[in-house]
Amino acid sequence: MKKIILAIPITAIVLAATLFFSPASAMTNTEISLDEATQIALLNAGFNADEVVIIKSEREVENGIAQYDIGFVVEPDEYYYEIEASTGKILYYMYYDEKKRKLRESNPVPPPQEITPDQALEIALKHAGYTAAETTGSEVKNDYDQGENIYEVVFYIYGKEYQYDIRVSDGQILDYEIDH
Fold it and tell me: pLDDT tens for residues 96-138?
């Protein structure tokens, strides 16, 4: 009889722990929807749903964090976002300006003076709304992308990584990413 009395509380504890730690209980109803995540990305980019073509819209788990990957095009530009499912926080976004790249390809006459790496960093910082004194590190590398001479600018502010591609010939920002 003692074995049965002892088995009931142990069974209850095991059952409660199984229910508490089960994958079904880990999924809460506090997540935002895919539509809400899309609206967050569109609002951040400054567009309405009828102005864009959605090219990616899915939920995934990356590094143990449930998130929505949203990609859309506003001809000819592309935008990509990662939105945290539990909070709606933008984890990452990228903007690719195709028009500015094509402008260079269609106009082969280079401007008279190229920018320096320091000027490229200043252009990126100004665009992001910061100064060099606010960074916790920066790097500017010269590279070629699609046959075009660019500076790859990376800097860190408040734990966020900012990446810019800036055309050497005229200082034009070709694309940028902010990793939250």
Answer: 777 666 655 555 554 457 899 999 999 999 999 999 999 989 9
3-state secondary structure of 178: strand
Who contacts 175 (Cβ-Cβ below 8 Å, separation ≥6)? Answer: 94, 95, 96, 97, 164, 165
Structural contact between residues 72 and 55, judged by C-beta atoms closer than 8 angstroms:
yes
Identify the residue whose tokens are 């859309």: 72
Amino acid at 99: K
57: left (phi over 0), alpha (psi -120 to 50) or beta: beta
| pTM beyond 0.85, yes or no | no
Cα gap 27→100, rounded to integer Å: 43
Q: Report residue 160: phi and psi, to 5°.
A: -100, 145
80 in helix, strand or coil? strand
